[in-house]
Amino acid sequence: MLSVRSLVAVAVVLLAACGTSSPPDEGATPTSEATTTTAVSTTTAPLVWTATIAGEVTVNPAFRQGIARVDGGWVITNNNMLFRTDEDFTVVQETTPGIPPELAARGYDHMGDGDVHDGLLWVPLETPDKETGVQVTARFDPETLEPVDSFEVAQHNNAFVTVADDGLVWSADRFIDDTLVRYRVDGTTVMPEEPLQMSRTIERIQGADIGDGAIWLATDDDTNGIYRVDMDTGEVQAVGSMGRVAGEGEGIDATPLPIGLLHTLVIDENIAPAYAVHLEVTSTPER
């Protein structure tokens, strides 16, 4: 039989083998084993956007400038004509000439790519003089195509105008540009805001529209390219082509429809016919 002294000795040995120790002093630094954690990354890979042609329709060759969505159809601009069409691009209302007489008398002879916002059709107008730094945007009733009012903008070119849900108006000062101008309109008073610097220069901008959280630019550059611009950062992605690169790319509308998000006009290389081209937009994480 073990003595009491022998039993105490055995207990001490067993406690030492189990690693039993006194609790750490208050405020002591924990061991590295106790504090080791695995960092979990929450960074999301940037998205790569792609626009793919989903359909093409031959349309009136006079449809050669801008396109905007209205209930039940489209509003189309020519250099000096306005059309409202049904879903199939059949004309249901036409105004010729489209430019109000008082603006035509001041030398305005070209309508660009417009937009429908807050019950008005906004249409950019230009004179042949691109060096004075003054152009005009006119507003129309989108149903009757009758003029409502107009206001001057401090731009050399005025190829397009598009309006965000918050009322911020977007355009570009030049046909070839690396900056988008922005302003607000109170009545016919224009209040400029800070321009958006883009990450690259875009050649031959013909039209633009806001949709799906971005502004989409249509061009008649070497590819009839379409570009997505991040409205916060100015980051530009080339997303695709509206096709028929021997012809001329024109305006663009961004409205989610069964046929796609983007809807553009392209003029044939022989002037006629014209085409309405619809594009689906997809995004995938950058690899």
List keywords for this structure.
single chain; 287 residues; mainly beta; five-stranded antiparallel sheet; four-stranded antiparallel sheet; 21 strands; 49% strand; globular; disordered N terminus
Please provide a written account of the structure.
This protein is mainly beta and 287 residues long. The protein is built from three helices and 21 strands. The strands form five sheets. Strands 6, 7, 8, 9 and 10 form a five-stranded antiparallel beta sheet that branches. A four-stranded antiparallel beta sheet has the order 1-21-20-19, with no helix packed on it. A hairpin with a 2-residue loop joins strand 2 and strand 3.
SSE order and pairing:
Elements: H1 4-17, H2 32-35, E1 47-59, E2 66-70, E3 73-77, E4 82-86, E5 91-95, H3 101-104, E6 110-111, E7 115-117, E8 120-126, E9 135-140, E10 147-153, E11 162-163, E12 169-171, E13 177-186, E14 189-202, E15 205-211, E16 214-219, E17 225-230, E18 236-241, E19 248-257, E20 260-267, E21 274-285
Antiparallel strand pairs: 1-21, 2-3, 3-4, 4-5, 6-8, 7-8, 8-9, 9-10, 11-12, 12-13, 13-14, 15-16, 16-17, 17-18, 19-20, 20-21
String of helices and strands: HHEEEEEHEEEEEEEEEEEEEEEE
Assembly classification: single chain
* Global shape: globular
Overall residue-averaged pLDDT value = 89
Q: What is the beta-strand fraction?
A: over 45%
**Biggest beta-sheet profile:** 5 strands, antiparallel
Helix percent band:
under 10%
Question: Between the first and last Cα atoms, what is the distance in angstroms?
Answer: 75 Å
DSSP E strands, number: 21
Helical stretch count? Answer: 3
What is the radius of gyration computed over CA atoms, rounded to a whole number of angstroms? 31 Å
Structural class: mainly beta
Detail the poorly predicted runs: 1-41
